[in-house]
Specification:
InterPro entries: Cys-rich_flank_reg_C (IPR000483), Leu-rich_rpt (IPR001611), Leu-rich_rpt_typical-subtyp (IPR003591), LRR_dom_sf (IPR032675), TIR_dom (IPR000157), Toll_tir_struct_dom_sf (IPR035897)
Pfam families: LRR_1 (PF00560), LRR_8 (PF13855), TIR (PF01582)
Number of helices: 13
Subcellular location: Membrane
GO molecular function: signaling receptor activity
Structural class: alpha/beta
Keywords: Glycoprotein, Leucine-rich repeat, Membrane, Receptor, Repeat, Signal, Transmembrane, Transmembrane helix
Largest sheet: 14 strands, parallel
CATH topology of one domain: Rossmann fold
Amino acid sequence: MKTANLKSLNISDNNWVFLPDDMFQGIKTNRIENIILNSNNLHLLNFTWFSSMPHLKNLRVSFNKISTFTQESISSLKKLHLDSNDITKFPKFCINHGNNSAFPNLRYLSLSNNNIGNVGAFRCFPSLKILKIGDNLIDRIHYNTFTELKELTNLSLQAIGKHLKIIEDGAFNLPLLQMLSLRDCHFHFVSLSPTAQSSMLSSCKDLRVLDLCGNYLDSTILPRIISQLQQLRYLNLEDTKLGFLPSNIFPELPVIETLIMRLNRIYGWDRNVFAHVTSLHYLDLRHNLINIINESSFPTALLQNLKSISLAKNPFACICEQIWFVSWLRQTHITLLQYPTLYYCTTPGNYNGVLLKNYKPSFLSCNPIFLFVISISALACLLILTMIIFLKCNTNVKNFLYLLKVKQFRRQGYLPILNSDDYEYHAFVVYCDENRMWVHDDFVKKLENEEGFKFCIHHRDFEVGESISGNVDKLLKKSWKVVVIISNAFAKSEWCQWEVDIIQERRRRQGRNALLLVMLENITSKNMTSPLRTLLDSTPHLRYTKGIGENLFWSAVIADLRKAVGQPPISEL
């Protein structure tokens, strides 16, 4: 066979168990650059097989059963593929008692999908730029694992350990790193201290691509991790369990172009969330819990640079608050991925399944004030008088009906079985600072002194020295129910919106009876947020009133607090 000009040799899929030592000695050429030995049954990889090939650059020995190596220096080798073998220990690529590298010019090394359980420090790779060790059994990344890889720019740790448990401080001390993938590691970043979260990637000043898909984050941790990544262009937060997005979740990211947040639990965000990511070209928010998008959801600066967006498969509400979004969908020049087929309504019931493009509310139907303008003055006066009477009595009527429902269920045999003895507190009270006086002086004092309830409240029961989020998490577990005191001040508070997110989880797990909502006042339209509307639409609430009807209000509160969790629900009033 004429081999003088042979540069590539593919001998895959031959079911070979071993190769003779002189396998390649008979090839009369020194020009071979690529050898592919994939999909055989090799147990041993002997690098001396290739000693007669001074120009070998690329060696692929994937999909074998290799577990041992015989070392030999190949100074010309630049790419080495050892994926899908039976390697249990990271091979040693040092020679001459660890002083020299067997592959001094190696740029690319892939050891993905092996059985490597632990790795020490990577040594003897002076030129390595790309390292892939995903799908191994590594459950801990040590602080010095990659320190010696001075030239490393791309690092893939996808699905290591199946459930990665520990990332030590200083594990990613890689100043030239441009791409990092921790995809599907199922790592709980809350296990890191706040200091460790902030320093985790602080050395990676040139990082361009970060993939955190398939891990566990929350809105307080993410800003610490990415706060120093000024060169970040691609950020993947798919399936990271994100909920409500507060205004500070994204720090200044001046060159970010791609942001992926699909498959989360996002149901709303602060109007300033996207103020620092206005260079975005692609935004993916599909498969979340978004009900309403209005004019304040996306800043103008973001929309000016955005080229494509996906909001598919969200449970949109076809109500008047959606009128801006419906209009924007029809006229925007931004590419709407999967529109219109996967943009449809889920509420109200008569619109369930209707495509958003077919929802066409009229300006008049969403602005009933015009009906009053064209009405005769006599009818207007009568209507206003009727409304005043109704508003005056509305709260008492609702509270009376609520209490009547409770008694009706009892008559039908649904007797409450109080099980609050298993908890330290009867209820955890969520409120904003502006309502503190009413909560302490009226609500807590009356119900604790006169009815024997024990409440958990922020200014009395939170542990000094522990973070607020830590206190909330711990004390919620000690509380049988949750009481939410709602007002306009509550609706405007970012911290209260975060607490709404937490108690929504409690409602989903334990049902509506686990929550008691008390409205101190009507929420104005400018303060009504999507998360708060969702909470009010899905959970019955009581309205506080002074004077006539106040006794009825307290009776309804007491009845609800004593109602067992799991009792057949009372329909929303």
